[in-house]
Amino acid sequence: MQSSKTKKWHGALIGHRGGGKTTELKRLANGLTDRFLPVIITIDPSLENDADYPEVFLWIITQLIETLKDSDITPPAHEFKQFVEWFAEVTKEKTDTTTSTTTAETKAEAKVGGGFLVWAFSIAASLKSAISGSTQHRSNSREEVKKYLSELQSRTNGVLAAADEALKKKHPGKRILLIVDNLDRLQTEAARSLFCDNGQILTSLQSIVLFVAPVGMVLGGRIIYSGIRPHFMPMISVRDRRGKKVAAAVNGLTDLLSARLDIASCFEAPALVTDLVLASGGSIRSLLRLTDEAVLEAMTRDSLKIQSKDIDRAIKEQSLTYQRAYALSSVYYDILAEVDARGTLAVPEASADGTSAEDSRLAFWRRLLHDGALLEYNGESTWYGIHPPARECPQFREAAARLKKPKPKPVIRRPRGGKKS
Q1: Widest pairwise Cα distance in the chain
Q2: What end-to-end distance do the CA atoms of the chain give, in Å?
Q3: Rounded CA separation 370/139 (Å)
Q4: Residue 295: closest CA among 267, 316, 322
Q5: How many CB atoms lie within 10 A of CB 393?
C-alpha cells in the first residue's frame, strides 16, 4: 500500500470469488487505520452484470460521506449536495418531493450542514434505487452522464478533495482510502468495459483507490488498464503441483472451519474434515458450501453427525452445478483436461484490436476462472488446477480419457510393385 502522502494511487486486488478477498481487505483496512480512513464501497448486487464508471462514482461518493459521518467527521455537505443534484439533473431524476420533505430540517440544521446532507442523501438514495432497478432506465441514465465526463470527474474529485480536508482537520496526516469491493462479480463484457475501455477514467480519481477485479482480467487479450496496478491473491494450495497434500494449508482451513462449528460433535471422524477441506480445492467459499450441503444431507437422514456419504453427496451437488453450467459446450471440459495434464494455460492470441470472438478459447478460459472450476495457485511459479467437484463430472473424465488416448498412426501406403515377368 502506498504512503498516505501519495496524491493518488490505483490498484486492483485480483483473485477467485470465494478466495477470501473481502476478509483480507477488512484485515488490511483495520491494519491501516493509523494512516488512513478506510471507506469500503460495495456495489449493488443488481449491477453485477451491468456496471460502469457512472455507477461506481455515485456509490463511492455516497459511501464516502456516510463513512465520514460515522467517524464523527463533518462531511463536505455543500460539495456533496452539488454532486447529487447535478447527477439527478443529468439523469433526469425528479427531486421535488425530496426537497419539500426536508425543508424544515434543512433550516433547523443549516449551521452544521446537516440539512444539506439529509437532502442530498435522500436524492442519492433515489438515484441509487433508480439505477439498481430497470436495466433500460439504468442504461439511459448512464449514457446521459457519459456525455458530461469531464464534469463528472471534476465534481467527483471536488468531493474527494473536500473530504480529505475535512479528515485532515480532525486527524492531521491521514488520507482517505477507497476500497471498491465485489467488482470481481462482473461478467466478462462489463468487466472489460470498466477496467479496460474505461480504466483511464477510473484512474482520474484523485485518491488512493483499491478495486476488486475479476480474476480473468489479466488473462490474455485486453488486460486491465496499465494505470491500475494488479495485486494477485491466489487460491490456497491444499495440494501442491504434484498432487501431494499440503499439511499447513489443510490445517489452516481446518482451524477456520472449527471456528464456525464444533468439529468433534458434527463429524463422525476427524479424517472427514480433511476430506472436506481437500474437496474444496482451497476455496473458502467452496469449503463452507460443501459443509452446509453435508450438514443438510446428514439432517435429511436424521443423523446427528456428518458421515462420508454426506460429503460424497455434497461434492456431487457441486459437480451437478458445473454440469448444468457447461451443458452447451464440450470445450469447457477439453480445457479442464488440458490444464489437468499440463498445469498451464494455452491461451490463444487475441486479434489486432485486442478482442476475441465469443466462441474463442479465451472466453471459455475466463468463464472457467470466473466460476471457480479452474483455480489459480502459485509457489515458485503460477500454476492451475481443477476444482475437485469439477473432476467428478463424467464429461471431464471423458475429455481426460480422449486427451490420453494415443492418436492412431497414419497408414503409409507403399506403391504396388509391377507384375512379375
Answers
A1: 122
A2: 90
A3: 24
A4: 267
A5: 22
Quote the CA–CA distance of 9 and 203 in Å, as a whole number: 8
Q: Would you list the DSSP string of 213-245?
A: E-GGGGSSSS-S-TTSEEEEEPPP-SB-TTS-B
Q: Which three cell numbers stand for residue 392?
A: 467428478
Which grid coordinates are listed for 137? 432506465
Sign of the dihedral defined by the CA atoms of residues 127, 133, 137, 138, in that order: positive
d(CA 194, CA 199): 6
Average pLDDT, stretch 291-316? 94
Give 257 or 137, the one with higher predicted confidence: 257
Residue 99 backbone zone (phi > 0: left; psi -120 to 50: alpha; other: beta):
alpha
The residues that bridge with 39 in the sheet, in sequence order, are: 178
Evaluated on CA atoms 89, 91, 93, 95, the torsion sign reads negative
E strand segments, 26-115: 36-42
Would you state the cell numbers that stand for residue 41, as one nine-digit string? 464501497
**DSSP classification of residue 114:** H
Sequence-distant (6+) residues with CB within 8 A of 2 are 9, 208
The span from the CA of 76 to the CA of 157, in Å, is 12
225 three-class SS:
coil
| Euclidean distance between CA atoms 202 and 179, whole angstroms | 13
Distance CA 203, CA 191 (A): 15
Q: Are 83 and 222 in contact (CB under 8 A)?
A: no
The model's pLDDT over 85-138, given as tens digits with 9 standing for 90+, comes to: 899 899 876 554 444 444 444 444 444 445 667 767 778 888 888 777 777 778
Cell numbers that stand for 416 in this block: 504396388
Q: What is the distance between the alpha carbons of residues 338 and 340, in angstroms, rounded to a whole number?
A: 5
Q: Quote the CA–CA distance of 382 and 233 in Å, as a whole number.
A: 11
Alpha carbon 312 to its chain centroid, in Å, reads 29
Please name the residues in contact with 380: beta carbons below 8 A apart, sequence gap of 6 or more. Answer: none
**Helical segments of 301-393, H only:** 308-325, 331-342, 361-371, 388-391
What single DSSP character describes residue 185? G
CB 175 within 8 A of CB 4: yes
Number of residues that this document lists for the chain: 421
| Edge-to-edge strand list for the sheet holding 36-42 | 36-42, 175-181, 208-213, 9-15, 229-233
Compute the distance between CA of residue 369 and CA of residue 339 in angstroms, rounded to an integer. Answer: 12
- The number of C-alpha atoms within 13 Å of 29 and in the hemisphere containing its C-beta is 19
Rg (the chain; Cα; Å) = 27
More confidently predicted of 294 and 22: 294
